[in-house]
Amino acid sequence: MKRRTFTTLVAGLGLTASLMGTSAMAQDNMRIALVVKALGIGFFEAAAEGAEEAAAELGDTEIIYTGPTDTTAEGQIEVINSLIAQNVDAIAISANDPDAVAPALERAMQRGITVISWDSGVAESGREMHLNPSSNELIGNMIIKLAADNLPDGGQVAILSASATATNQNIWIEEMNKVMGDYPGIEVVATVYGDDLADKSYREAQGLMQSYPDLDAIIAPTSVGIVAAAQAVEDAGKAGEINVTGLGLPSEMAGAIESGASRSFAIWNPIDLGYSAVMIAHALATDEATAQPGASIPMGRMGEVTLDETTSGAMADPFVYDSSNIDEFKSIF
Amino acid sequence: MSLTDHATGRAIPDRLRTPLDKRIKSWETLLLIVAVAIFIANSFASPYFLNAWNLSDATFNFTEKAMIAFAMALLIIAGEIDLSVAAIIALASTAMGAAVQAGAGTPVLIAVGLGTGVLCGAFNGVLVTRLGLPSIVVTIGTMSLFRGLSYIVLGDQAYGGYPSDFSYFGRGYVFWVISFEFVLFALIAVIYGIVLHTTNFGRAVYAIGNNPTGALFSGIRVARVKFILFLLTGLMSGLAAVCLTSRLGSTRPSIAMGWELEIVTMVVLGGINILGGSGTIPGVVIAAFVMGLVTFGLGLLNVPGIVMSIVIGALLIGVIALPRLWAMRRR
Hints:
The complex is a heterodimer.
Chain A: H1 2-23, E1 30-35, H2 42-58, E2 61-66, H3 73-85, E3 90-93, H4 102-110, E4 114-118, E5 129-132, H5 136-149, E6 155-161, H6 167-178, E7 186-193, H7 198-211, E8 215-220, H8 223-235, E9 243-246, H9 250-259, E10 264-267, H10 270-285, E11 296-298, E12 304-306, E13 312-314, E14 319-322, H11 326-329
Parallel strand pairs in A: 1-2, 1-3, 3-4, 4-5, 5-13, 6-7, 6-8, 8-9
Antiparallel strand pairs in A: 10-14, 11-12
Chain B: H1 2-8, H2 20-45, H3 52-59, H4 63-77, H5 85-101, H6 106-129, H7 135-154, H8 168-171, E1 173-175, E2 178-179, H9 180-198, H10 200-210, H11 212-217, H12 222-248, H13 259-269, H14 281-300, H15 305-330
Antiparallel strand pairs in B: 1-2
């Protein structure tokens, strides 16, 4: 009896092994690992989709889409260790902790593995380059462009920001002010702060509509503010009259696009991000390009990225979401 | 009732004898066979498995958890449990991070890490032994409490800037591929093995787990032994915090998230009776290797972590159910 159970057990393990064996991959392909913060997050699943698209375009490239179950640094280190052991050709990571994963990635680079970070960066010592989804200049320009495109004859716009001390928002507004000259006829009448609180943002948006009866657009470069402002516009019956735009998440903004309170808004496109990360990793791993300050690295259909002195670069303008594509993306993130 | 228990004069052996004796003995054998089978399966499944450095890297998947698992094993044998261990790691690591910001050197950091662990263990111990609260309830509470404190201190920030000689504990190698952590793990395994299997204290732990009332009437200071076990679990969590923080070089409040269940899994897989009273340290050692080999082997095949959890769960149920199935078929 004992022997039979052991036989079953050993046979079972043997079966598992043979199943594993069939999934062992062809070794001549270039293997690029896309390491994400955690598996099962819509944003990263979309990035993996983009990565597969890049692999199909490149040919001979295999994507290993992997990551821990929780968004922890130690989970990512276990993943990195197993990728080092497999001697993959490149690792493209969105890090849970810029410093904690750096030593493991340094070891990967010592073993000749190309390492880049994307979305959420790694300390400079732990990667060859970092791909930002966008840049402050591009975001600053995009938020005013979104408003101006719907106002060919000019008009009044107001800004609903996060808090007065929010670093990101202030930089973007500053960058926006630099390019205001490109959009003649557009007048910024006020900047108010909703502190990234839904109710406060809602009241501030209401206040804007009362103070400026001729207001044409509200720009909210924050995902909390944009939803609250769209709701306020909708509740005031001004959907279609006042256009709410800025930076938001497709899942949260789908209703506003449908009601007409928002014609379009922007945020990074995870598919493009995954695609570009793989294109860059491939170019670096095949030595078609080198990651050094000032270098330009090709990213297929996304053009090319130029690296700054910290060897990081911006992928593209934030991606614009409107009624034509919101249904596709609202289920992703 | 306690009197009748006492009156029956039941012997309190560290291994329950016939027919359990055989079963427990075969447990380690079974586990060892599973470990060897996994090792062989891994070598066939991935060409990268049989490599000294890769195997050395793989040991980091379990060494820190296993340090705590030994202390947890004693606690579970004595009929208690500590689910706050991962939260203690977070709090101890946060305390070390704060110490670094205050300019502390490596010796102070280790003292802070271990000290925080011991204090947390003492807190659990007092609540359980003095107030007589059930340990599972107390430690579910302190699990949120300790990690909550880390979140209050750190929020979405991180502590870093640990001194360079501090990194030896998590990244150093004693000899070739043998890491410092692995040596520490082996040393702790031996110490706990000796304590549990050869000392009076170890006998007392088994006695308490089998029959706390009987143990009390036999003159064992039950509350004191339990308190010491909570202290030890806290100390081991502090030690794991030192190693993990050193390995990561930074502290975030999410550090070691979810480890408590992996550690309890390791202990139970090692043949420790979750209801207390029986189990051995060698079993836990083998279980640590089994879990390390399975996660590393599956990692080499890029099996997603969620599937890994399923495999570990299936392994746990399988290994626990097998001896019971044998027993049933024999009858």
